[in-house]
Amino acid sequence: MGGYYILIGAILLVSWLVSSQLKSKFKKYSKVQLQNGMSGKEIAEKMLADHGITDVQVISTPGRLTDHYHPTKKTVNLSESVYSQRNAASAAVAAHEVGHAVQHAQAYSWLEMRSQLVPIVSVASQFSQWVIFGGLILMGMVSVGVGQMVLLAGIIMFGLGTLFSFITLPVEYDASNRALAWLKRENMVTADEYKGSEDALKWAARTYVVAAIGSLATLLYFISIYLGRD
Q: Which of 67, 98, 154, 214 sits between 20 and 30 A of 185, alpha carbons compared?
């Protein structure tokens, strides 16, 4: 299992570096005040109105970088700082989350696919690694054949999570593209403010890329163990 711990360590290191850079970018662009004086809440509400969406509510949610769109409740949940502050970072995040609401309203195929996978993946991701390790233990201590079957079941479960992480990529990038296009089209930000919003969203998207690549690398590692034992 030494290779597994090295792999996980490398993934965690890269994830930490990207996350640290993301936090640094948001801290930087949180100091770039919007000339239009609008808060994240106001930005979100205007983007919703401009897209003719009247059944989605913008609310504040506790925490930092906890912003998300809830498709079932139809709420754009903005972290406390994004909700109330009036800077390039809050404008970017608010518009991005509304981008998901626009996807939902327009039945964006990748978002619909991801939403359909959520119930399955939430269960599979919770138990996949326990099943995988259980299979490895069985292979080494009880029965190779039984262990292989349990290991394969765990790999399939983990694979669903990996698939979900890759389906998430076009959803997140599209939401950012919609947000940036709207910010520019409606002259919501100046050129400098736009650059800050664009850079912040770029680093936010990279966290999803790292997560997807890390999940794929881990999946391939487990598959190699299965094939090596078979």
A: 67
